[in-house]
């Protein structure tokens, strides 16, 4: 199996996100000047254009805002996993923020572990973290424990 491509954890705009993920914390970027929270991170605030931002913890709770099913072709390392879902999560505590991610049945389960028939808009999800290298831990999403995976 080909290794999956990994993000660059030392990019100055995203380093804080990956550092927090390695500590199993989900963070978003907040502008120190106006308080605007944003994701993905930028070198400046998307609202007021100031360049002083900080990382703040997010609850890691959200709901499926949208989803799609990848059938391929895909990036190297994902060919053997199709079809698999890709979801967009709206964060409960930052509803203006939506994150693209993987939906998995268990913390270390493969990205094709949740059948498409079990996914719906509004499905409550919680973040989980999977270390894929010494430097990179990926935030991924699991259906909330109270949710059944059966369609
Ligand atoms: Zn701002």
Short précis:
The protein is mostly beta strands and 151 residues long. The protein contains one helix and eight strands.
> How many separate domains?
2
CATH architecture of the largest domain: Beta Barrel
Helix/sheet category: mainly beta
Distance from N terminus to C terminus (CA atoms, Å) equals: 31 Å
What is the count of β-strands? 8
Q: Tell me about the largest β-sheet.
A: 5 strands, antiparallel
What would the principal axes of the Cα set say about the shape? Answer: globular
C-alpha Rg, in Å? 16 Å
CATH topology of the largest domain: OB fold (Dihydrolipoamide Acetyltransferase, E2P)
Give the fraction of residues assigned to helices: under 10%
Helix-strand topology string: HEEEEEEEE
The percent range for strand residues is 25-35%
* Widest β-sheet, arrangement of strands: 6-5-4-7-8
Bound molecules: zinc ion
